[in-house]
Please model this.
Amino acid sequence: MIDVGIVGASGYTGLELLRILSKHVQVEKIFVAASASNKNKILHIIKSFNGSKSFSAVDFDSNKLNECDVVFFATPHGVAMKKASSLLKSGVKIIDLSADFRLKNPKEYIKWYELQHSEKDLLKEATYGLPELYREELKTSRIVAMPGCYPTAVILGFYPLLKANLINTKNLIADCKSGVSGAGKIAKTTTMFTAVSENFTAYGLTGHRHWPEIYQELDLVVSKANLQTESTTNTTGLLFSPHLAPMIRGIEATLYCELNEETLDVDVKKIFEQEYKSEPFIEILPDGVNPETSSVRGINTVKIAVNRPIHDKTLRSNRVRIYVVEDNLVKGASGQAVQVMNIMFGLKETTGLELTSLIP
Amino acid sequence: MIDVGIVGASGYTGLELLRILSKHVQVEKIFVAASASNKNKILHIIKSFNGSKSFSAVDFDSNKLNECDVVFFATPHGVAMKKASSLLKSGVKIIDLSADFRLKNPKEYIKWYELQHSEKDLLKEATYGLPELYREELKTSRIVAMPGCYPTAVILGFYPLLKANLINTKNLIADCKSGVSGAGKIAKTTTMFTAVSENFTAYGLTGHRHWPEIYQELDLVVSKANLQTESTTNTTGLLFSPHLAPMIRGIEATLYCELNEETLDVDVKKIFEQEYKSEPFIEILPDGVNPETSSVRGINTVKIAVNRPIHDKTLRSNRVRIYVVEDNLVKGASGQAVQVMNIMFGLKETTGLELTSLIP
Amino acid sequence: MIDVGIVGASGYTGLELLRILSKHVQVEKIFVAASASNKNKILHIIKSFNGSKSFSAVDFDSNKLNECDVVFFATPHGVAMKKASSLLKSGVKIIDLSADFRLKNPKEYIKWYELQHSEKDLLKEATYGLPELYREELKTSRIVAMPGCYPTAVILGFYPLLKANLINTKNLIADCKSGVSGAGKIAKTTTMFTAVSENFTAYGLTGHRHWPEIYQELDLVVSKANLQTESTTNTTGLLFSPHLAPMIRGIEATLYCELNEETLDVDVKKIFEQEYKSEPFIEILPDGVNPETSSVRGINTVKIAVNRPIHDKTLRSNRVRIYVVEDNLVKGASGQAVQVMNIMFGLKETTGLELTSLIP
Amino acid sequence: MIDVGIVGASGYTGLELLRILSKHVQVEKIFVAASASNKNKILHIIKSFNGSKSFSAVDFDSNKLNECDVVFFATPHGVAMKKASSLLKSGVKIIDLSADFRLKNPKEYIKWYELQHSEKDLLKEATYGLPELYREELKTSRIVAMPGCYPTAVILGFYPLLKANLINTKNLIADCKSGVSGAGKIAKTTTMFTAVSENFTAYGLTGHRHWPEIYQELDLVVSKANLQTESTTNTTGLLFSPHLAPMIRGIEATLYCELNEETLDVDVKKIFEQEYKSEPFIEILPDGVNPETSSVRGINTVKIAVNRPIHDKTLRSNRVRIYVVEDNLVKGASGQAVQVMNIMFGLKETTGLELTSLIP
Model:
């Protein structure tokens, strides 16, 4: 049994952590840190999860956090960075859902988040919390940077083909659509009902913070694959286009890439099935089933469809199209964070994540 | 003043034609053809447009249609094909919103619509009703095949760069998202509120009827451009991915392509602005404005944004990204059909199309 | 031809005024007043209505307003009150869409709007802008208080039966449901997409500003009816329950009342048909048609259904149920304001209001 | 541990039963009955609940159902009636979510469901499955008629005041709003996305099948209360107005009634708190919290707010307003059915119903 701290429980990812951890059989106590002004709100929220667990609201600087086994940060960027060092010294593990430890190059952090990085050593130490790529590293990590919602979908979608060195690494395209909860809980005119309902919007035309994160991780996969083959030194090129769909939850990513000439006859679906065959939270969709975000609402599963689309007059095209759907707040954030916690503490990876989708 | 017939007014594009034509100052009488069983419904619909025009519901085979100046078909495929010849003989012009005269190769028609084409001569004669590409031809056409909703957006998005021979014609990608009205008015489980709300779906994974149509038109532009430059013979390659967004109206198309090496320094936005500078229904968005479907809801305008997205570590990438938004029932169907009618009859092209978007 | 000023064009009712007035054939110039900081925004908005009218953005205190024939206030409460007097002195008529001149008793204004009323004489002079009740008075009014969105629906629903002295005036119940645009354009957590979508909320449990307004008007109708019959002195009792529905536009009001014993055999639908038979913007629905807000989206029409619902084991119940649907931004605000302008200036009442609903 | 059969698992209430029972720790085997044509679909659905339980798809007439401890019917009306007798003979208990055993008077059944009732003895035996009213009876019932979704909300809302003989029983009004899932899973034009989104509709103007059901149960409460007080013989009068809101799940009921003269000073909220103080699935909302359907999405809790609304110029009004929110598919259907099963089998009443709402 482990004790858990959560910093920032009033946002969407914090709430989702509470929803999931409140049913987690290996979690004993949950300490939710809040500022004095926010505490009543937190106590109200906690009350709705009442009965099943020992919940308490504590000060932002409470010693209770230092006594936890693990502390989750569901905070705006900049917060985890400040708190990490002292918690680690107390032997507390850290799972950060913010962007603070995602970008390995501190210069990129300044560029995209307009903030100097104060913990460059911890940045080096931090593991990127994507179990399908870093499960072994996570087992012994003290500090984990959870991937963003878009990066989870895009990286899992390109990974099998990149790893197997099957595609042109320069021509990766990710066209992504997200529900509005991805924009967070702060009221903005752009996320009002009147602005979002009956509207589909493209945004981030000149750049989006998830681009450097996806690029970094895909580039690492490409580098490893290059090393293995000892052949060419491929470079990585990625187009990433975020869009806002009029719904609360869900991300759909449609990915485009090109098989290398010599690998044209590969069975791409099989590549995915083999790569992910032991993964508890990845499902390769059978032919004929359309990828849809409602099928993963509220659950930690990513569903993937792969195909070779119609492209031109020839029968032989090298194009591959990959569809990925996830719940941005579950596999794209808090569910994956609990999955990572399970790995870090040697628990069964699916504990607390046997969730059922609400249909309809 | 012209007299107009509409066959198939109970579907969405038919209703939209009524909405627009009922305010068209150059239209005198409107005859709406319906089967006996549908007539009451049609009369009820017509009543809601009452007062402003002379509307009448007529039999499907009424002679009144033969006395019209123009007849619109807003019918399932197969209907216009049967009726076209006799109407043309009576001197009636035809604007067909169905797919019957879109694909110039009858073999493609059988392949995608599972129906033998019975009017191959008319097929040859028919003009593709996209004013921005075929305005001159439309002025003298007797029979016009209106583009599908997706094709309108995609073709207008790629056209300026293809025409100017600036991009790699083999690598065209169109990632498109549509509101549910595109699926028509027939009740299906996939278009029920419980299936669509809070859901984003990819469909048409193995092919979609709009692919051959888009491909045909883009390929024609490529061929013409090839001829002009007398240089290389480029081939056309197109990936097209339709998606369903939880909203009633609107299409957003995000298009990807690559500038040729020698044209890397071109100002792509300027190309669009010049190509479309006289177009009454195309607006190139200024930098900083996000393309959103609600901005064109109910109006005939297509809005386009163009940019050079972040791609890799170099500062010099050849990628271009184009965003197009339209109302699928207006510029994507009935509004464009009225625009074409205006051209065919020498009227001011914007007549009846001075529409205002409902915001919010 | 008249010149029109609009103060407060960036909110929803201001935008809707622009949408409607931009097509009004009797309006020549439109001056939109905005603070310096808001002017660019206004200019951008105006640009989208370009071509059809002479639009200009002016200072909040511009002399141009004093040269208008009429000035609309689409402002928060408190603004029109300050500006009214000086405009009237310049001979400008005033149509106020805010609450400043709605409540005849200044004490009620303080109570519900927490603001002292500074123009008690103008308050006495102001006409309540509901044409169906006050058409004659409006013809000669200098200053008009436009009804709120809920009051328009509720008053029009109860009016015919109250006027005819047919119902128990103590037992009026109005259960109302509104789209989110009624809450205005300011970003609040309660009107975010994530809070509203897939949610139906009751609010205003302890009172709502539209209660005193509806009560005042119904009570006036009751008093007049009492006078006419010279019989009993009925008192007025009204329950009003507002609810928020997950949609942008539309109000549905379900009204409940009881016929007096001696009037049990009256044909209630006929009462409505006769009362409203000359009204250009009221439609009594035929039996079998469900009242739905989408049927009035974007148009100035109110649709009303009346019936005698199942109530108990007897066949003879005195209960009446009235359903009213309207577009809260059109007949519930800006459309009705233009209707009032037409009346004030002796124009055809429907001018500029020949609107067509967008379906679907 | 009990074995459970489900007849009709492809509709929404059937699916919801599967969602809930698949996590029920006291349920061992689940047999899902389906016609041959539907079996594949059912197997596909069952697969998604895989791992946690022993699920099997069986024939509609399978003997396996006769070996279950309890069989749920989630079928259209008419089916349970046919099957009930033989199952009961095999010692199987029956929980019927359809309307077959709700109306105690077979004449009412014919009138509202247009079907002769073939099991009048069982009809007499059947208990109405509302635990808050019939918990004791349910403990020994063999056959239970689950309440409809609207009746659950309305009856629970009026019950405390009727039971305590505090209100005028002739003047009960229930204004109800439902999400679209209440209309079932069959595709109809009225439940398409294009018909429902951005639309609020009143329906059932001339009567709704839930009226006789609510009336019957409220009338029974009134009769009992009459007996207790031995005083007046009150009669029951109920207006019931169903509406369709543009959302998938949820019912909100706003109820109106009048306190008797002698009970004007009663603390109505306290009456509710006392009546329901031991109820695991009823929560009386504190003042200041708005009743909203999203707060009960996916959970078995009913939330109730009570107040004395503003009514007229006096400070002393006898009106009471009650708000009830529930998830129509959980407490309004399948969750309540599992609650009833727990009672029938002497299990802890909340087993399997410790559900968490998905927010946002």
About this structure: Residues 2-125 of chain C form a domain with the Rossmann fold fold (CATH 3.40.50.720). The longest strand of chain C covers residues 27-34.
